[in-house]
């Protein structure tokens, strides 16, 4: 790549969390950034902003199919063919309404697909290339919701739980290869995904979550809670005995 | 529903908050919601940015830059971008926002809607004077692009239009040239109002920024006059950003009868040590309180009012003197009291606050009836002086004073969006 810019790829680049990570990256150095999104026009607005922030960075947008395995493979192969990728952030996801998922299997299927299968396919496609190159950082955004199933959002939680298990396995596979795999578990954060929620108090600021993520990527931490306090909270939740857990309305 | 308060923390009110984050979705978001009002950083002190039990269109997600021409200083951005983020981006490239208020933690949209002023009003006017164009979205779905040379009547209604003409989504700002982040400053102590006005007049021609802190507890009106000019000296270190947060809301206001006098005297003496010439980074000169996050909490759970008025210069001395007297008679007083002259120019907004004269801004802990009674006596002085009260700070002015202070109200109302309403508009306009 020209003048050794760090090469970063973001999948789901219109996500508010991902966009704030990108801002931090271009603020620090000039980067070569590929923004992958399902809607190129929306991603262009993100790219335009980043170009103003960092005229020397190279930023481009790719529109992609997020479901079809062959299309994902092809897209990733093409990206990697242009040069070694230093960092991949897989950020897309959507928060479904649990009640709707219980009543409508089509919605349930979509929620499971976009939150688990799709990110796993992207990660899998990059992992092979990174393993060959013996370098790179692959960061996937999961969620605290994947730590324990609960009645108010277990379809989403199950999908994020799948990502957790997947990341664990991939970390095992790529241990000692020079490739780092990170699982990021944000707590509730103020982004468009949570905008419709009635209870808005206590949401983390997206800037703060992005800072934690970018730092963790620099340090290559395997599992990151963002903000960090969620590590403790989720440890408690994971270890609550079933009979107590069942009495909670969460 | 989410409980929201404005900067004065006079109350927490339930709102249905609708986040705007994609500028291309705003039309449909406005159309599908009943009556609401735009809300930026909520840095207004009173109820201008509130709509209890109704919709707030939160604009802070509209925070993208669109273009920056480094040759001409023309910046286009979304309306939820913070002035802080603009400053940090453009100063390194030789540009600066021509006008900023005493905090940079406000949105571009909020700065236009209140047509905010800074310490350089005499030379640079208010925020609206530097806007080339803006895009306004109305609740009926129509889109209006206006500026000083394009639908200028819509522009004059929207600048200073306290959110009532629609939601601003995109803005084109003319930046101004600067050589760096440094200012050369001078602080001068004054002993009475005559000296203040003398200093203000003497500084207008040669100093870009002027402001003063006045001790409204001490008799006579002593204070400190600060003035500054940009400088290209670069022998200084960038300030380390040391952010402190007021960690909790104390059970009672920390600013009260017992503390006020010692606070003001201590502040006066502390600042007096800085009398003379020196250099300052723009962030510490323009936004001295921004590193003390949530300082508004120090007024306790009942919150506080800011009373800011402007009175014409011809009666400025007497009116300010009379107000200071009323305040000292009431036994209440203000820790943060700012006295500043405005330049001799009319603002372009129909409802803009700045007008030629002198402006006094005072913070008072909310002591209920007692505080409101004092304001009534101050209102009498403002009314007689033919002055006006700043909507960005107001939570209580009577309707007749509003109507007297803002003579272009009837003209302005022709441009109002009937799908927009705030607690302030209901209080002062009736709907
Ligand atoms: C410490 C401090 C110092 C200050 N110093 C000064 C000063 O020196 N000079 C000065 O003039 N002011 C000053 N202010 C007041 C402040 O600059 C204004 O209240 C400003 O308008 C706040 O901007 P905001 O983004 O917080 O808007 P909000 O307070 O959230 O909203 C203000 C108004 O703008 C409207 N609005 C917001 N966004 C939009 C949009 N996109 N489209 C249409 N309408 C919109 C709202 O409906 C509301 O009417 C100060 C405030 C503080 C807290
Ligand atoms: N916000 C939180 O509280 C929170 C908490 C824990 C974990 N997370 C996780 O953090 C990640 C980022 O979320 P965010 O908070 O930044 O939310 P966001 O701003 O709403 O972004 C969601 C992203 O996912 C994309 N997306 C949604 N549905 C899609 C689909 N069916 N196919 C393809 N892409 C789709 C969106 O694309 P469009 O822009 O085109 O819609 C957008 O890029 C997600 O994985 C989320 O699960 C968020």
CATH fold node name of the largest domain in chain B = Alpha-Beta Plaits
Radius of gyration of CA atoms of chain B, rounded to a whole number: 21 Å
In CATH terms, what is the architecture of chain A?
A: 3-Layer(aba) Sandwich
Order of helices and strands of chain A: EHEHEHEHHEHEHEHH
Describe the structure.
The complex is a heterodimer of chains A (250) and B (431). Chain A is α/β, with parallel strands linked by helices and 250 residues long. Chain A has a single domain (6-245), classed as Rossmann fold, CATH 3.40.50. Helix content of chain A is 50%, strand content 16%. Chain A contains 9 helices and 7 strands, in the order E-H-E-H-E-H-E-H-H-E-H-E-H-E-H-H. The radius of gyration of chain A is 18 Å and the shape is globular. The model of chain A has no long low-confidence stretch (mean pLDDT 95). Chain B folds into 2 domains: 65-178, 2-Layer Sandwich (Uridine Diphospho-n-acetylenolpyruvylglucosamine Reductase, domain 3), CATH 3.30.465.10; 182-396, Alpha-Beta Plaits. Chain B contains 13 helices and 21 strands. In chain B, the strands form 5 sheets. Chain B has an 8-stranded antiparallel beta sheet with strand order 16-12-14-13-19-20-18-21, sandwiched between helices. Chains A and B meet through helix 2 of A and strand 2 and strand 5 of B. The site of flavin-adenine dinucleotide has 32 residues of chain B, from strand 3, helix 3 and strand 10.
Short account of what is shown:
The complex is a heterodimer of chains A (250) and B (431). Chain A is an alpha/beta fold.
Short descriptors:
heterodimer, A: 250 residues, alpha/beta, Rossmann fold, seven-stranded parallel β-sheet, 50% helix, globular, B: 431 residues, alpha+beta, Uridine Diphospho-n-acetylenolpyruvylglucosamine Reductase, domain 3, Alpha-Beta Plaits, 2 domains, eight-stranded antiparallel β-sheet, five-stranded antiparallel β-sheet, 13 helices, 26% helix, binds NADP nicotinamide-adenine-dinucleotide phosphate
């Amino acid at each position: 790549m020209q003048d050794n810019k760090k090469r970063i790829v973001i999948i789901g680049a219109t996500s508010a969390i991902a966009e704030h990570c990108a801002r931090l990256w271009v603020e620090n150095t000039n980067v070569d950034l590929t923004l992958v999104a399902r809607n190129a026009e929306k991603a262009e607005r993100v790219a335009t902003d980043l170009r103003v922030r960092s005229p020397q960075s190279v930023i481009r947008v790719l529109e992609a199919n997020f479901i079809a395995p062959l299309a994902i493979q092809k897209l990733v192969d093409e990206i990697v063919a242009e040069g070694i990728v230093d960092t991949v952030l897989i950020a897309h996801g959507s928060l479904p309404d649990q009640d709707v998922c219980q009543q409508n299997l089509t919605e349930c299927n979509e929620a499971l697909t976009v939150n688990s299968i799709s990110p796993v396919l992207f990660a899998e496609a990059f992992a092979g290339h990174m393993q060959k190159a013996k370098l790179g950082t692959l960061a996937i955004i999961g969620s605290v919701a994947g730590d324990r199933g609960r009645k108010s959002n277990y379809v989403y939680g199950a999908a994020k739980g799948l990502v957790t298990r997947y990341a664990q396995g991939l970390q095992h596979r790529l241990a000692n290869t020079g490739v780092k795999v990170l699982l990021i578990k944000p707590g509730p954060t103020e982004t468009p995904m949570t905008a419709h929620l009635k209870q808005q108090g206590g949401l983390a600021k997206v800037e703060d979550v992005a800072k934690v993520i970018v730092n963790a990527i620099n340090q290559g931490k395997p599992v990151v809670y963002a903000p960090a306090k969620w590590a403790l909270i989720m440890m408690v939740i994971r270890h609550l005995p079933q009979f107590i857990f069942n009495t909670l309305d969460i | 529903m989410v409980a929201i308060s404005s900067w004065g923390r006079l109350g927490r009110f339930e709102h249905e908050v609708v986040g705007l984050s994609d500028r291309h979705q705003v039309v449909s978001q406005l159309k599908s919601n009943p009556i609401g009002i735009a809300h930026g950083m909520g840095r207004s002190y009173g109820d201008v940015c509130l709509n209890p039990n109704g919709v707030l269109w939160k604009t802070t997600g509209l925070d993208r830059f669109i273009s920056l021409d480094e040759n001409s200083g023309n910046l286009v951005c979304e309306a939820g971008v913070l002035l802080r983020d603009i400053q940090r981006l453009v100063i390194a490239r030789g540009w600066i926002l021509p006008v900023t208020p005493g905090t940079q933690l406000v949105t571009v949209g909020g700065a236009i809607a209140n047509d905010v002023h800074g310490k350089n009003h005499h030379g640079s006017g208010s925020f609206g004077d530097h806007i080339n164009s803006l895009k306004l979205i109305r609740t009926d779905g129509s889109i209006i692009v206006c500026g000083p040379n394009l639908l200028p009547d819509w522009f004059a209604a929207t600048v200073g239009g306290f959110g009532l003409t629609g939601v601003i989504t995109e803005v084109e700002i003319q930046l101004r040239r600067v050589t760096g982040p440094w200012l050369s400053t001078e602080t001068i102590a004054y002993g009475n109002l005559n000296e203040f006005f003398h200093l203000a007049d003497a500084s207008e021609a040669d100093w870009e920024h002027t402001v003063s802190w006045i001790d409204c507890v001490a008799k006579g009106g002593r204070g400190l006059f600060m003035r500054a000019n940009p400088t290209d000296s670069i022998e200084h270190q960038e300030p380390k950003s040391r952010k402190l947060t007021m960690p909790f809301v104390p059970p009672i206001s920390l600013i009260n009868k017992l503390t006020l006098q010692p606070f003001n005297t201590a502040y006066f003496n502390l600042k007096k040590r800085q009398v003379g010439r020196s250099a300052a980074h723009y962030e510490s000169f323009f936004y001295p309180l921004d590193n003390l996050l949530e300082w508004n909490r120090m007024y306790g759970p009942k919150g506080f009012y800011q009373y800011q008025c402007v009175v014409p210069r011809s009666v400025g001395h007497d009116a300010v003197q009379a107000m200071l007297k009323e305040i000292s008679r009431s036994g209440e007083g203000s820790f943060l009291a700012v006295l500043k002259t405005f330049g001799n120019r009319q603002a372009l907004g129909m409802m803009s606050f700045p007008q030629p004269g002198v402006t006094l801004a005072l913070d008072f802990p909310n002591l209920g009836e007692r505080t409101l009674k004092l304001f009534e006596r101050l209102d009498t002085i403002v009314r007689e002086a033919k002055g006006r009260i700043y909507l960005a700070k107001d939570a209580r002015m009577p309707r007749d004073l509003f109507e007297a202070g803002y003579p272009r109200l009837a003209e302005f109302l022709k441009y109002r969006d009937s799908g927009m309403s705030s607690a302030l508009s209901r209080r002062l306009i009736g709907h």
